[in-house]
Every structure is written in C-alpha cells, then in structure tokens.
Amino acid sequence: MVVGVVVALMALLHLRGGPMWEEWLNVLLGVWLILSPWLLGFSGVGNAMWNALIVGVLVGALALSLTWEKPKAA
Length: 74
Hints:
Layout: H1 2-15, H2 21-39, H3 46-69
C-alpha cells in the first residue's frame, strides 16, 4: 500500500509539472513491484503475485514512456 501511495503522489507531481526525478522514481517503484513477490516471499499467492507483476509493469512502462515523451529540466 505504501508503494501505491508514493506512485499516486508522484503522479500528482507530474500533473502539476513537477521535476523529472518523479518519473524515474516511478520507474524504480515499478521494478520494485515486479520483484516484490520474490523478495517479500509471496510468490506462492497467485492473485497477489499477478497483481504486483501487472501493476509493476504498467507503472514502470507508463513512467518510462513519460520520460521519453517530453524531457523537462530538473
């Protein structure tokens, strides 16, 4: 839940024209979500694992696409 709150805050920063580092933080959070089932030991729980993987891929891919879209000054 903490990662979700941080992703939401970074998205709000982006909407307000925030700095570029917030997108890179979202990319890192997406990678964390992808790896979290194995690092935190819940890879055996099917629904939770798939949720973390799918949301991680979406967060990471969308944040990465925004970094390529229009570079902003930091």
